[in-house]
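ok so i was messing around last nite and threw this chain in just to see what happens. nothing serious, just curious
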Amino acid sequence: MPDSTDQSPLNSTRRKLLSVLGTGSVIALAGCSGDDDGDSDGDGTGDGDGDSTGDGDGDSTGDGDGDGTGDGDGDGTGDGDGDGTGSEGGTLNYGLTGPTDTVDPVISSSAEESIIFNNIFETLVATGNDGQLYNWLASSYEITDVQGIGPADYEPYMREVPLDDDGFAAPEDGAQVLVEHPDNEGDTGLALTVEEAQAAVEDGTYGVELTAELHEGVEFHNGEELTAQHVVDSYERHENTSFGTQVFDDVLYSVADGDYSLRIYGQVPDVEASRRLPVPYIFSNEQMDLEPGAMDPRSEAAPIGTGPYQFSEMEGGQYWILERHDNYWMQNVGVDNKGWSDGAGDVPDRPPIQTLDLSIITETSTRAGALESGEIDGTFNLTPDQRGNFANADGYTVDGTPAGSFVYFQLPAREEAEGPWHHQEVRKAFNHSIPRGLIVDEIRNGLSEPGVVPVPRVAGSSCTFGYDEAVDEFEDMVAYDLDRAGELIEEAGVETPIETTIVTNGNDDPRVSLANLTIQAMNQRDFWDISLETEPTLDALSDRIEADGFWQTNETVLIGIGGGVVPELYMQVIHNPAFFQTCCQYQNLDFPDLAEALNEASTSLDAVEDPDYRRQVWMDDIHPSVLELSANCLIDFEEETGIVNSNVVSGFRKYFSQSGTLSYMTYAPYDGVAASVNQS
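result:
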């Protein structure tokens, strides 16, 4: 494996810890509540790209076979209506999976917390269950200019700054870094910060220009009217926060043109500019100057947004209560007046449900029991067995949709690490020794698909010419074949047995079962000697695998990531050295040729102008490279599933990303979704 530490264009900004957003464009850790279908406690991952799922419909699988995938019509509503036109008012009692103690979204990287935030805060666009973007707070939203600009083109506007121990720009005044010069090395280098961005834009140096027009009359929960300046200032509130580092990986500058118009500039051409440039959360003037972390009702600073629900009360470790916003802006605009309203069906101009009573129930078995007893009306992230039980019982609706998440092994592939894993043949042998079909059948109860194409199905439309066809093309490269594994090890000429210790989080029972099943299958042959060690929680596992020197041990990481529909992001966060010791790269991997191909697919003018060019780069270069390298061996892609009491809840649909679990279910008119509760 190459030892180069030179930064590619993909590495030109500070490393990022990413989390899931409603727009589907970021990635992070997943899996700690028992079933691995996107749950996370530092995670997310976030969110994405393309314009449809692999099969183009974005619906649940709906095969009606009792495996928890729906009732056969793809809407998972139980009674078959799916239009959310039930009764008005009432309370939805819903069970969340993890702690939600952080109230300020600019410092949160938790999917559980984003589930709540996405009901309170909104942004310019929304993402449907098929990955399609829809204008939301924006009445119009379009890319108006694209230029072939790269990081080095900002050199005339850059300033000299110190570089930290990892070679990243660290301005002494703490200014948010936007672009780093690709030739930086040594103790100092050049960087463009937010302070110099305006000059670059005014000189016409930018990668993409996006123009947006806001709906007039949109009110925050405190009565302020939303203006373009709110959007611009909200970017500033994200500066130098854990969340802001991913915002400013893409954004260059924004400026208001009057009260309701604004322009947003991106650093480079980007195939996903429309999805990645909008500011994730828009804040009121009342809270714009709060220090990161200061937004907290316990200090009389409850979150204020424009969303359909507003904060009522909370106890971080136990519950949240949200109440419907009485003057929600869609009531004034009207769904029928949105440009996408033809697909909305008979959806009202506000969510039918009045109150969201959200209980924090971390134990999977306790959450399932609460649903069965009627203490809660719905939940998600139950084990495959629990999902199957509810699917086969009367009075429950189980809906599933292909998730933006996967589980994978990350191997100690650097030559400096212990063991022979720098030999590509050895890594490929490991990949051929994973019993994916057995894992799908015995661990997932059939509710996942083997990890062949190295991105989830929900992200597949923009990186394949047909997801199923791509599976057929590449499945031989990862087929379970211990004989072939033995041949590859013999070709490598290394001593056997080959040892490694798989490390994972022990509080995820299916993940531990997956590891043990893999170990049992591999150790049938005397050329493998694989063992398992667990850490009690995902946090504890993160501490272990992010520690200095971990990558030089002979340990293999078993972990999951969740995200959205941008395929390049999945591969960047697990291969790119910019993400080393964060989510989700722990083995100090560096593959410059793969990085170059990912850059070509995401930021070249050819890819921006021609979606088929992007797909061709993936099919010719990226997919086969990832499988040949086998530094990250994808195991399977689960479904994102949810369960409701169908005697109480009507119109339920599950979203592909965990962060949108609740906001999508309660009000997603672009997909014809607006759940209601039976108040009888």
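not much to say yet. The chain has 19 helices and 24 strands.
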